[in-house]
Design a protein that fits this description.
- The complex is a heterodimer.
- By secondary structure, chain A is mainly α.
- Chain A contains ten helices and no strands.
- Chain A is 74% helix and 0% strand.
- In chain A, helix 2 packs across helix 4.
- By secondary structure, chain B is an all-alpha fold.
- Chain B is elongated and about 180 Å long.
- Chain B starts with 11 loop residues before the first helix and ends in a 40-residue tail after the last helix.
- The chains are: A mainly alpha, B mainly alpha.
- Chains A and B meet through helix 2, helix 3, helix 4, helix 7 and helix 10 of A and helix 1 and helix 2 of B.
């Protein structure tokens, strides 16, 4: 079944087509939700609401001639996730400040020996958890700019914030991510039996 | 805080490759949960909404722009206030005295004639005594007439007082006028007595020879 046929069948409220679409994109979108969220429970919540949002807006795909259905669904999902995460105001605006104060000595340890980290050797889960441990503002911009390839201008428009604050958050996010990965690697090495 | 000594060691390209195409395992429970969820219209995309057709103006002002502008406005307004106290007129304009022209409308005196001048009228008093004396019988009429002149005289007296005031005023004004007019004293020239010269009788008849004294000429 082609994409056009899938969409036309979905618009006729065909439940099997809806399930087929869900199965096709669930695993991919689930990981995106995990990257943007702070933990697995929030990721699940984001995934279900995001899928619902994608299906609501799916009828607009016929107007988008420049991008494929995969890209359309991904873009719609990411824009929803960003709004959803930013919508949790007590986390987005408060938690970042509190966390920065709490882990001031731990995270901003400038004299810690930083060796070049080979990301290929880093466990997939360690990398995901390190990203999840970032504060929401830093996590969002890191995901948008570094992983999903959004420019700073696009990200600032999506997050409804200035480009300068995006830059600042990205720098802090990079710094914190490196230190978190280093710490997690150290912990994983210590846990390994000699 | 972050320091310049920090060196970023993460290879973002590798992270991107790892995370972009990564997937999590599909779980049937997720579909069941999703199926039980009611679709919400809150996330309706705004791509076809009317607001999209209105151009958005995004002006980003940083502190480095706003603060100097505010200071410039503040200093400018203060200097404008200070300059408002200073006159930059030329000296010539200051030296020129503006002649004061009296407005006659402001000095309109209340006309002396405005008050009604009641003419002095002499009231003739009837000779009451004679009437009483002449009529021995009691008669009320003359008594009434007696009362009347008294009031009239009183009125006349009051009238006199009213009349006297403007006259005095007028007199005083005339006196002032006399005083103000410059008195030019003309010096009387003394009359000199003219010398009487001998008159020569005019010749009436041309035929007659007249013996006139000849002038002596010195021909040297």
């Amino acid at each position: 079944m082609s994409q056009a046929e899938l969409i036309s069948a979905y618009l006729k409220n065909d439940k099997t087509v809806k399930k087929q679409l869900f199965e096709t994109y669930c695993s991919k979108l689930n990981f995106i939700a995990a990257r943007y969220s702070k933990n697995s429970t929030q990721a699940e919540e984001v995934l279900l609401n995001g899928f619902a949002c994608v299906f609501v807006n799916l009828d607009q795909f016929k107007y988008q001639n420049t991008i494929t259905l995969d890209e359309f669904i991904k873009n719609e999902f990411i824009s929803f996730v960003v709004k959803y995460i930013k919508g949790i105001r007590n986390e987005y605006y408060v938690a970042s400040t509190v966390k920065a104060v709490e882990h001031k000595e731990k995270t901003y340890d400038l004299f810690l020996d930083s060796k070049f980290i080979d990301v290929n050797k880093v466990n997939h889960d360690v990398l995901l958890k390190s990203i999840q441990s970032l504060v929401p503002s830093q996590r969002l911009i890191f995901n948008l700019h570094v992983i999903d390839g959004y420019s700073l201008a696009q990200a600032s428009e999506l997050l409804d914030s200035s480009e300068q604050s995006m830059k600042a958050n990205l720098e802090k996010g990079r710094f914190n991510l490196q230190k978190t990965i280093e710490r997690n690697l150290k912990l994983s090495n210590d846990e390994q039996p000699v | 805080m972050m320091n310049n000594q920090f060196s970023y060691e993460l290879d973002e390209r590798q992270i991107k490759n790892l995370m972009q195409d990564a997937e999590l395992e599909y779980n049937e429970a997720l579909w069941n949960k999703f199926d039980s969820l009611q679709p919400s219209n809150d996330c309706k995309s705004s791509s076809l909404q009317i607001g999209n057709y209105i151009p958005k103006f995004n002006f980003s002002f940083s502190r480095s722009i706003i603060l100097p502008v505010l200071f410039i406005i503040l200093i400018g307004s203060l200097s404008a206030v200070l300059f408002s106290f200073v006159d930059f007129k030329k000296k010539e304009n200051i030296d020129k005295e503006i002649p004061l022209v009296a407005n006659p409308a402001n000095f309109k005196k209340s006309e002396a004639t405005a008050a009604k001048i009641i003419k002095h009228t002499e009231v003739k008093v009837n000779p009451v005594k004679t009437l009483i004396a002449s009529t021995p019988s009691i008669n009320t009429i003359p008594i009434v007439t007696k009362a009347m002149p008294a009031s009239k005289t009183k009125q006349a007296e009051s009238v006199k007082i009213v009349e006297s005031a403007p006259k005095e005023k007028i007199q005083s004004i005339t006196e002032v006028k006399k005083e103000t007019t410059p008195v030019v004293v003309k010096k009387k020239k003394k009359k000199l007595q003219a010398e009487e010269l001998p008159t020569i009788k005019a010749v009436t008849n041309l035929t007659e020879v007249v013996n006139e004294p000849e002038l002596e000429l010195d021909l040297k």
